[in-house]
């Protein structure tokens, strides 16, 4: 998920229902042409389009842009890797090696506690 510490320099998202592409560009520190490109690469990023094909992003879309930005700019993912990571988050899959090791340790600890309780 999105690491809030990586977005400390980004402004707070105002309480609005819709944001224009220019507003999202400023809120996420990403150029408008990059946002349009990301729309073609990430299926989950799909703003509402109205009159004259104008894009209107909702709060969830802005959060998704920030998440994509974090994956690409701060965590070093490629476009393909970020796409897989986001799809994994959506499906609940995509456990990496470090997460699997942590889960295994937790499971072992819980089994030991269970034995102590018996």
Query: Within the CATH hierarchy, at the fold level, what is the topology?
Result: Multidrug-efflux Transporter Regulator, Chain: A, Domain 2
Count of helical segments? 5
Order of helices and strands: EHHEEHHH
Mean pLDDT: 84
- Give the helix level as a range of percent: 55-70%
Shape: elongated
According to DSSP, the number of beta strands is 3
CATH class annotation: Mainly Alpha
* Sheet with the most strands, sense and barrel status: 3 strands, antiparallel
Low-confidence stretches: none
| SS content category | mainly alpha
Provide a concise account of the structure shown.
With 118 residues, the protein is mainly α. It has one domain: Multidrug-efflux Transporter Regulator, Chain: A, Domain 2 (Orthogonal Bundle).
Name a few traits of the molecule.
single chain; 118 residues; mainly alpha; Multidrug-efflux Transporter Regulator, Chain: A, Domain 2; 5 helices; elongated
Give an overview in words:
This protein is mainly alpha-helical and 118 residues long. The protein has one domain (4-117): Multidrug-efflux Transporter Regulator, Chain: A, Domain 2, CATH 1.10.1660. Helices cover 58% and strands 8% of the residues. It contains 5 helices and 3 strands; from the N terminus they run βααββααα. It has helices at 21-28, 32-41, 59-74, 79-91, 97-117; strands spanning 19-20, 48-50, 54-57. The chain has a 3-stranded antiparallel beta sheet. It is elongated, with a radius of gyration of 19 Å. The relative contact order is 0.12.
């Amino acid at each position: 998920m999105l690491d809030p510490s990586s977005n400390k320099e980004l402004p707070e998202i105002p309480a609005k229902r819709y944001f224009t592409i220019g507003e999202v560009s400023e809120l996420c520190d990403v150029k408008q042409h990059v946002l349009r490109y990301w729309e073609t690469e990430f299926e989950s990023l799909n703003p509402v389009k109205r009159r004259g094909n104008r894009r209107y992003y909702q709060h969830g879309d802005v959060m998704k842009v920030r998440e994509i930005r974090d994956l690409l700019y701060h965590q070093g993912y490629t476009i393909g890797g970020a796409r897989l990571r986001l799809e994994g988050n959506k499906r609940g899959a995509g456990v990496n090696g470090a997460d699997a090791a942590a889960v295994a340790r937790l499971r072992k600890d819980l089994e030991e506690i269970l034995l102590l309780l018996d």
